[in-house]
Specification:
This is Molybdopterin-binding protein. Strands 1-2 form a two-stranded antiparallel sheet. The protein is an alpha+beta fold and 58 residues long. The mean pLDDT is 83. The chain has one domain.
């Protein structure tokens, strides 16, 4: 069972990428966070061209 709530606040150019691309990227990032949690790894990691502004845990 998850021991809390995790979130990443990210920033990328709205003009450069379409809404569909941004939604797909967010879904992939969420799945990556889940994969890392299930493997016992730190859920925050580098995401290349996407700026992670804030990492939240509650």
């Amino acid at each position: 069972m998850p021991d809390g709530t995790y979130a990443l606040r990210v920033r990328f150019s709205a003009n450069r990428y379409s809404l569909a691309i941004r939604q797909e990227v967010c879904a992939v990032m969420a799945l990556n966070m889940l994969r890392r949690w299930l493997n016992g790894e730190d859920i925050t990691s580098e995401h290349g061209w996407i700026d992670v502004v804030e990492s939240l845990t509650a």
